[in-house]
Amino acid sequence: MQHELPIYLDNNATTRCDDAVVQAMLPYFTQYFGNAASNSHAFGWSAAEAVKIAREQVAALIGAEPQEIVFTSGATESINLALKGAFEMYATKGNHIITVATEHKAVLDTCAHIERLGGQVTYLPVDNYGLIDLQQLEQAITGNTILIAVMYGNNETGVIQPIKEISAIAHQHNVLFFCDATQAVGKIPVSVMADGIDIMSFSAHKIYGPKGVGALYIRRRNPRVRLAAQIDGGGHERGFRSGTLNVPGIVGFGKACVICSDRLLQDAETLSTMRNRLENELLQLPGVYLNGHPHQRLPNVTNLAFEGIEGNTLLGNLNKEIALSGGSACTSASMEPSHVLQAMGVNEGLAHNSLRFSLGRHNTNEQIDYTISTVAKAVRYLRDGPKACNDVKRNKTIKHS
Ligand SMILES: *Cc1c(COP(=O)(O)O)cnc(C)c1O
Q: Which of 6, 91, 262, 337 has the fewest CB atoms within 10 Å of its CB?
């Protein structure tokens, strides 16, 4: 059987729902359609029971208590609640937030909003690998600092920041630590206890769950974190986030978390093996470079620069066969090179030449073989023209099993 085209290698933008997730959700659209806040009848009770179970499942994946989980519409909303909610709640303590130049736009744009409200934000630089300097972090803390916001794994490069060290520094200085773990949860072991995280955002659709549902972990003890609600009305989610709960979405999120915890190590092993093969083969082409840290990173992603070839041109050449993105999905519509690569000191030319390959549970070895040969062919074609390409046989044949 020939595999379907295009091959999906954009799993950091979103993932296909696991079939078992869809199955778990379906009854909650029809048979159990109740409002989880309706406590006077069975329709509400069954919805509330399903939410309760899902909350336990989501909490279990990150080593939290169920009462520490607030359901939202996704990581973007969770990030807004964390940052704006802390800024508002801790106004009497200070107005200073420390974050990093390579954060997701949801963090950076929210920080810009907070600056317009009178907040002070420090944007830490990163080194060529995308890592922050812990000494610089510590030096940036002032008496006015209320929050340190550093992501777990980067969406564009997969680079993993030294989370335990960051949380230790935050707590020595009595500052809260917020972590956007949207790309790390479900891919590598994340534990809010072991990692010392006080507030943490993540999202269902990045881990084979549905779009439009996410969570914010809010620590209840040592320290008890308080946040000002950003969506008022009805007092759902212990007042942190009002609005009728997305019961089917939450059920799917719970199921996705259970599957991730069952498969975490196995998936990480399979994905990193495939990713490394893809990366090693492509790095053998002349003028191809890795963006990011070679080891300290998520198992499923590689970000490569193809010298002399516009990322958009390469994307256009490939996109009938391979679905991937240049930089991050959010910046790929604009002509600005990725802010992440720029912050890492990748020169503007190479930043424009970069593509992100992000693998997922549904990718196969055959798809990776096909990707290697298709990208290699496109690179040769774009560098040397059609004639050069005709002389070169594909270096791998695709098995049709
Ligand atoms: C996808 C992503 C987000 C936004 O998540 P949504 O659920 O789509 O709002 C935030 N941060 C990171 C690191 C992401 O990868």
A: 262
- 330 belongs to the catalytic site: yes
Residue 153: pLDDT over 60: yes
Where residue 334 falls among pLDDT bands split at 50, 70, 90? low
Domain at 19-259: CATH code:
3.40.640.10
Query: Ligand 1: which of 76, 152, 211, 300 to mutate, most ligand atoms within 8 Å of CB?
Result: 76
Can you give the pTM of this predicted structure? 0.94
Q: How far is 1 from 400, CA to CA, in rounded Å?
A: 5
Hey, whose CA ends up nearest to atom 14 of ligand 1?
A: 182
Spans of all domains in the chain:
7-15+264-394, 19-259
Q: CB under 8 Å, gap of 24 or more: what pairs does 50-56 form?
A: 50/247, 50/250, 50/251, 51/245, 51/247, 51/250, 51/251, 53/251, 53/254, 54/250, 54/251, 54/253, 54/254, 54/255, 55/250, 55/254, 56/254
Q: Kindly give the distance from the C-alpha atom of residue 18 to the centroid of ligand 1, in angstroms, as a whole number.
A: 19
Q: Which DSSP string do the residues of 366-377 spell out, in sequence order? A: HHHHHHHHHHHH
Q: Residue 21: what residue type? A: V
What is the whole-number distance in angstroms between the Cα of residue 104 and the centre of ligand 1? Answer: 7
Distance, CA of 351 to CA of 312 (rounded, Å): 11
Q: Which ligand 1 atom is at minimum distance from the Cα of 204?
A: 7
| CATH number for the segment(s) 7-15+264-394 | 3.90.1150.10
